[in-house]
Amino acid sequence: MASNEQPNSVHHHSSLQKKIKLKQERRQHNVSFVMMILLTIVAFAAIASDAISNSVAILFIIVLAGVQVFFQLYIWMHLGHKGHEFPMWGIASGLLIALITVGTLVGLIW
Amino acid sequence: MSNAHAANKSVLWDWLTTVDHKKIGILYLVSGGFFFLVGGLEAVLIRIQLMNPEMTFLTGNLYNQVLTMHGTTMIFLAAMPIIFGFMNAVVPLQIGARDVAFPFVNSLGFWLFFFGGVLLNLSWFLGGAPDAGWTAYAPLSTTSTGHGVDFYVLGLQIAGAGTLMGGINFLVTIINMRAPGMTFMRMPLFTWTAFVTSGLILFAFPALTIGFFLLMFDRVFEANFFDANMGGNAIIWEHIFWIFGHPEVYILILPAFGIISEVVATFSRKRLFGYSAMVFATVLIGFLGFMVWAHHMFTVGLGPVANSIFAVATMAIAIPTGVKIFNWVFTMWGGKIRFTTANLFSVGFIPTFVMGGVTGVMLAAAPADYQYHDSYFVVAHFHYVIVGGLILGLFSGLYYWYPRMFGLMLNEALGKWNFWTFFIGFHLTFFPQHFLGLMGMPRRYFTYPEEFGLGSLNFISTIGAVFMTVGTIIFIINVVVTHAKGKKVSGDPWDGRTLEWAIPNPTPHYNFLQTPLVRGLDALWIEKMAGNKKMTPAEPVGDIHMPNNSILPLIMSLGFFIAGFGFIYYSSAGAPALIAIIVGLGIGLACMFLRSWIDDHGHHLHKEDLLKEDKGVDA
Amino acid sequence: MDVGERLTDQNFPESPEKATLEGKNKFLGFWLFLGGETVLFATLFGTYLGLRNSFGKGPEASEIFQLPMVFAATIILLTSSLTSVYAVLALKENRVKQMRRWFFITLLLGLSFLGLEIYEFVEYVHEGHTFTSGAFGSAFYTLVGFHGGHVLFGCLWITALLVRNSGRGLTLYNAPKYYLFALYWHFVDVVWVFIFTVVYLMGKVG
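^ Those are the sequences you sent over. The predicted structure of the assembly is below.
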């Protein structure tokens, strides 16, 4: 392994950096978990409450679902990290075709 | 044999367990070729029935079965696997790789296709083939009696799963396994088209998978997706089928574009004209291919807005396709053209495909389509693009890469007979069908009355089919003669430009002793022009890591084959069918489990043995 | 280094799941597979949306859906997604025991989600909402059932991984396997986010 050939101090330094990075990541993960729980509660509340009209509520909860997807893909699945360029393309293309498909089956049938 | 494990076992066992992309390519080619003959036979039967008015040779339901199986077999079991055969045989070599990214999955993909195809064709012997057309529109398909359509659904579901795996495999292979220096914009055009085609497979086939599940649930488990009485909606099937189905025709034609680009450049002794434009056009066609499916549904009644959007999107595809046509012509312009059989097929392809494209633009005009729809005009159009385009391209590829795949050169004299009979026969068969369509002959009808005046054009069309049959038979004779003679050729018989011609014949098990260093487009040609006899290596000779053979893909596919039978007969046979389902899926899952459980690190070929072997081969 | 060799803290690479060519291939191939799965589920969602008001002979969606149970299922699956993230973090630090513990908790949460779903289906069937009661019923059970099937497959997968690698440390051979499972599990959770939004919440308001 490459790290074996490095002097010890450098190795310790890089492992320390890695630890800090992972600690930050853990915090990010926790925050996004709390956010997702909150979003879920808000979505359920929006439907349960009579204050918001149904069509607005539907639009609202779909947006909330989109935000949750962002959290999952970017924070938990690390899609934004380096080395994810092709996965990014794969998911983006999949989502594009998915949108077209859903749109068609909702709008172009009777 | 460099593989110590394989040396002890029989040849048959080696082929059944192989994970070598070169052998899997041959397996795909041979089984796809077999299904091509089956589908061709079905076509001949159709043409005999239509030869004269009011024939009784093949009528009613049997005619429906033959026409359904002709379309289904040709698209899914002949064209797709032959394309996969070329992709397997050529892509890893063109990018300087030793194998594909997932050799095990590659083998699994082949066996799934194979068993799916066998399952579908067994319907002939088990009560009748599917009879609802290759598009299987509901409610015709959901109410079709017997098990024919069940065979269609299950057979294609299994084969389709194999195709999807193949798509992912080639995407990863091309992205991750290119040799040093082989940037995306230095990839040969066939590899580019294989890449885009694989992408289309990845995003188109899942829709079909679901479509088949819905159809199966309706037929076998009494679901109500397409039953209007229970609130179902048959248009959903049409959308799902064509969301897959239109990308599918680009999945088919793009690799043919790739083959033509390789062949035309090689036999013009020129670099491909407008390489970057060709790449861009390929990607653009792939993208637009997803945006146009509803042009198959103009007459469904989507409304003028939707029809207009899809009409314009469809016509837009003519632009990148036109770019390709002109670039091929300009590649030949001023080149030292050699009219080998491969090049004849390529040159024949260009005007033929243009004709198919022109009728495509005609069909894209939504108001006019109301006249053409479901007539022989459509039949003529799609045979011009699929036979005149794809099949001519595949023949071209066969003559071009045969020396690479089998180490033998197909006979050129027979090849030219093959080309001329097939080419003339093709136009004789399908050109009159444009006019039959305009005269009002609907597709899929098994006969027509004499007073309609369709007789003479139909007769000409059938004569054409005879010529195409003769052409195909000449090809088979050519293969037999070539293998009987068995005269070996060098690794570079065409004075090639790309990496697949940089290795000796027969291709070593590990492809490249040393991974080549790529210094530009047409990597081999660059070295030739620099006066080098061989590619510059990117690494010293060392141990080579190779994957292990495995029988699991075959057994796993067999499991799904058995389960497929169970699903087909579940609605009529009950308990025994259920047992088949459980046993079959059990075998499949058990194989997956074993694959996960048994550590498989592959094996190494050692440097000393490699060097010894390399000396024995005349490069 | 041999891919089957146990990794130590000294030679542990930054991304053990992508340290070999096989690992890189699996990583990319699996992401692309998920791209394809996106289209697969989109087709199911589209079909469901097209048929969601065609109840046929069955009861209407707003009459039968029980939001508290769905909410519980959602929280369970979200939490299991978090535990699989923790497992991946432990994987990146070569803390095998913790990783395996977090994956085991993920498995338990997945199983309880499945239990809840089966219970829910049984309830619905009793109320006349079945696979054959109408187009809505067919579409509902197919969409939610496909997701449930994915959860079930994930449970079998992680069970096999945990059993096979019990007593074995992380290697360059098994690290990608663990990592891919986590990706899969997140994806299944993403699908569920849309199911609870599009199927249950939208079903409640019609």
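The two ends of chain A are 62 Å apart (CA to CA). Chain A touches chain B at residues 86, 90, 93-94, 97, 100-101, 104-105, 108-110 (CB under 8 Å).

Shout if you want it in another format.
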